[in-house]
Amino acid sequence: MTPQTLRDSEDAAVIDVGSNSVRLVVYRIDGRAMTPVLNEKVMAGLGRDLSRTGALSKEGADVALRALKRFATLLKAQGVTSVFPVATAAVREAKDGGAFAQRIRDELGLDLRILDGAEEAKLSALGVSAGAPDAKGVVGDLGGASLELVEIGPSGPGRGETFPLGPLALAEDEGFDYDRVTAAVERTLRGARVLPKRGGDFYAVGGAWRALGRIDIVLSNHPIGVLHHHEMRRNEVLKVADVVRKQSRRSLERLEEAAAKRAETLPYAAVVLERVMMLGGFDRVVLSAFGLREGVLLERMSREALGVHPLIAAAEALAGRWTRARAFGPALEHWMAPMFEKQAPVFAPAREKVLRGAAARLADVGGPLHPDQRVEIMFDLILRAPLAAISHPERAFLAAAIHHRYTKAQPRHAEAYVRLLNEEQQAAAAALGAALRFGAHLCGRSETLLADFQIAAVDGKLSLRVKKRSAHLVTETAARRLEAVAAALGLTAETKIT
Questions:
Q1: Domains of the chain
Q2: DSSP assignments along 119-156, one per residue
Q3: Is the whole-model pTM more than 0.85?
């Protein structure tokens, strides 16, 4: 059966019935962009008895059913009709999993799709590619009962495997024992085909691993608290794992409150991540806030939506809630491109082009804000916005560029700007912001008027060519801002009427 194709603009919901939790996420779909607008989780513990009885927890099933009834009521009230319920390891492996799915269908009208291990791994990897289209390495999705591993590269997900290594599967009545758990994990992963000494990046998906990431952010005093694309080197993973093993629940709560809610399962999750890192020879872990649920949506998107870079799509979606005309951003991106053709890149050239495209689409987002607070608000907004396919240094760069869209002054009290960007990247962000400021002012944010101007960097000059009918638009302010862009690019400014 062909999967339902999502419309380019609608609300869609994914219900994820996992081994430990039952979650509803409603997304605002805007082309390829998918922004969570409602996120609810209930810790049902469906799989807590699975290793002992082979069946779902009766109490957990009752809790899950009550949660699903609430979810169904909320979706009906909100008019959300694109609803995709999926179940993972606990329901898949339990001897009464099929009966549980039938009960949900009979009582709530929800047709639960029970994913096999290969499907779960593929959808998790698809979700990672939604948030990191250049991902290359191995994706690991740690749920309550299982670990899915799948190769990922430029062509998308590759071969995948599933292992019974979730915290609920590893836990025993006598409690956590590091040596026992480590031996069990190593024994189980010994035959993994996708791991042996691959090196490179490991993309970590799942709530327990995100909790470890939150602890690392606290321990390292990282300047951006966004989990998506937070990176940890091998020594940092080992440090976090050691901290988790040695801290009490109360100590973890003082360190990171959200992580403390997973105090019982975190030691198991830490051992699995530690062993995967060592057996795979990975250089770093990249946390992904995108996973199975986003993969469920990505496989249903149109070819046209998938043709847009996810960072561009996310910027357009964010800008679309604030700006009057969505056509101006792409027009500004195309118009200012010649300014930067001969500039030395401060990121990979392909990444710089995408970042300029995102900046152009965000150039007018601050328009409705009060001018006294606009600069600070915009810097913080872009730094923490739900953007896909962007690293933390790139977030700082994009935030700085939008900051400089409104002011020449450097960001104040902005640790991310100082710690994550070198001097060349800071200067490039200032130049991009000056270009956005000049282009937006010159035409009053009208793509129609912008077409009357051409700009090029030639022979050490930033040359603006103006059609005669629009010469009156080149005010003293416009001329001054042209000179500012030229100076930022190491050029001199000139204007010609044609």
A1: 9-114 (3.30.420.40), 118-293 (3.30.420.150), 309-497 (1.10.3210.10)
A2: HHHHHHHHHHHHH-TT--EEEEEE-SS-EEEEEEETTE
A3: yes
